Structure formats: structure tokens, C-alpha cells
Amino acid sequence: MGLKRQKQAKKTISFYKYNFSVREPFQILIDGTFCQAALKNKIQIKEQMPKYLMGEIQLCTTNCALKELETLGKELYGAKIILQRFQSRRCAHLKDPVPASECLLSMLGETNPHHYFVATQDHTVTAGVKKIPGVPLLYIILNTIVLDKPCQKSLDHVQAVQLGELVSPSQQQSIRSLKEEQGIAQKDGERRGKKRKRKQSHPNPLSCLKKKKKKGGPTPPKKMEQGENKKRIRNKKRKTEGGDNMSTHAITHT
């Protein structure tokens, strides 16, 4: 039975790794209800969790979850001691603590950008986690830690990505990193802030062509032939009385 449970956990982790970029060390967000169930069932969280998930883990909680255990009194003192051993992640409620269920869901946001696992026995948290795609859910049943199967929201999200309707978180991250490397994101912001300058328009080349002459119109005057108005010189020889040729005189004709 233990091998079957671990095999199913391996399959589920592969689903989150491939579709939601979940990587080691797995960050597991724990509340007081999970610590109380582990104490009651004698489960060593730090020892058993890495073996079950077959990878390196980081156990963490929030200040609100610790404050809630303090207000609940001595009955949950043991759970409080266990929870204090884990890393405390900063939440948005340092000055005004809220219930642990509300705080944990706020850490996930709408897309679980930090790839948290959530370990809880709280039904309110469980119901909220199943409305967010890409959040692995852990709980305790019959003295064992169980990794829940992917919820319907996660399955629908993966199907939408495969159909091209959505962009996966890994693709979004790679697009953002590429834009930062190329400086495209900054240029896009600058373009949005500045008005576009109109380019200087040039005249239509067709309008610059000479108009064609109409057929049947007046004929252009003929060009003067070369030398038409110029004076022509003709030499005429005169004979003298002795019959000798005289020097020629130029007679001009216009």
C-alpha cells in the first residue's frame, strides 16, 4: 500500500513539474491544523515529508498562523512548538494579523507564483486551494501524509494551455526574462508614454509626371532649320576686258 501511494505521489509531482514549473526544493506552506494532526498521529514531518515527496523540501509558515495558535491556548501548545521550527515567510498582515486560512490563501494569490505546496487540515483552506490552479495539496489521513490528486481547476488550466487559449506560467516567465534581456519591456513603456511623430510626407510620384499632350490639338511650331535666316554668300567672278578674271566680289542674298 505504501508503494502504491508513493507511486501516485510521484505521478502527481510530475504533473506539477511539467505543467506549473514546480521545482526542488519544494516549498511547503504549513498551518497549525496540520501540525496538530501530525502530533496526534506521531508523524515526524521533517523526516517523513522528504521521503514521501522524493525530493528536497523547505517547510515554512506565516506570522498569522503562529499568532492564531498563540490565541487558541494550551491545547495547541505542542502544534505551536512544531510550527515555530519552520521558516516564517513574510505576509501582508504583520501589523494586523488575520486568520491563518485567510493568510495562507493570500500567499498563493491567483496563480501561486512562488509554487507553494499547502499542508493543512482546514476545510476552508482546502476549498480555497482547489480554486487556484497549480497548488499541490497535502493532508493527513490514517497516520499517513497524502498528496492530493490535481484538482479540476488545474486540469482545466492545463487543457486550456494545450489548446492555445492560455499561456503557461513557465512560458510567461520565459517571455518576461527574454523581454528584460532585450530591453523590450522598457521600450514598450516608453512608446506608450510618447506620442507618435508623423513622418514627413512626400508627393505622389505619379503626380510629378508631365501631362500627356492631347491628340488632335494644335501642332507645335516647327523649329527653325539651322542656318535658315542666316545670310548666304555667293561669289561671282567678273571678267575684265582682257578676259582676265577679276577678284571676286561678295554678293549677298537674303
UniProtKB/TrEMBL annotation:
Positions with biased composition (Basic residues): 192-201
Endpoints of the signal sequence: none
Cell compartment(s), UniProt: Nucleus, Nucleolus
Key words, A-Z: Nucleus, Ribosome biogenesis, rRNA processing
Pfam families in UniProt: Fcf1 (PF04900), UTP23_sensor (PF24779)
Gene Ontology cellular-component annotations: small-subunit processome
Ranges of compositional bias, category Basic and acidic residues: 177-191
Span list, region Disordered: 169-254
Keyword Nucleus in annotation: yes
Predominant location category: nucleus
PANTHER family named among the record's database cross-references: RRNA-PROCESSING PROTEIN UTP23 HOMOLOG (PTHR12416)
Biological function: Involved in rRNA-processing and ribosome biogenesis.
Record's protein name: rRNA-processing protein UTP23 homolog
